[in-house]
Request: fold
Amino acid sequence: MRQFRKELKEKMEQLRMDPEFARRYVNDGFSGGEMKRAEILQMAMLRPRFAILDETDSGLEILADDVRCTHGATAGRVDDEQIFYARTRGLTRKEAVRMIVAGFFQEVFDRITIESVRNALGDAIRRRVREYQ
Reply:
């Protein structure tokens, strides 16, 4: 427990988080920025071997006298059930993860109209996925 608290304190300092946040429930009363830092802190503490992060639901909507800001983000591991399903079809775990990640990003790639940007992003993702063990 002592080692965990030490590591938590170090990570919170790196993220410039108020130490009082460690006394709260997860995301309890956090502002948007504080919540984002808390999510990053959670990922730093969990240290997943591979994670997919996206932020596709950001937007600002202005209608007559009403202004609404929306924001969404997802972070998580590759789903074990998807890996299991792909493995029942003869793929190795590594091949399954690579295929799932490629499928996840395909929707993003399809929307990028600048070929050089699409290629650079694809290369960066392929390099990261190749590093996955």
The CA atoms of residues 8 and 45 lie 7 Å apart. The mean pLDDT is 76. The chain is about 55% helix and 10% strand.
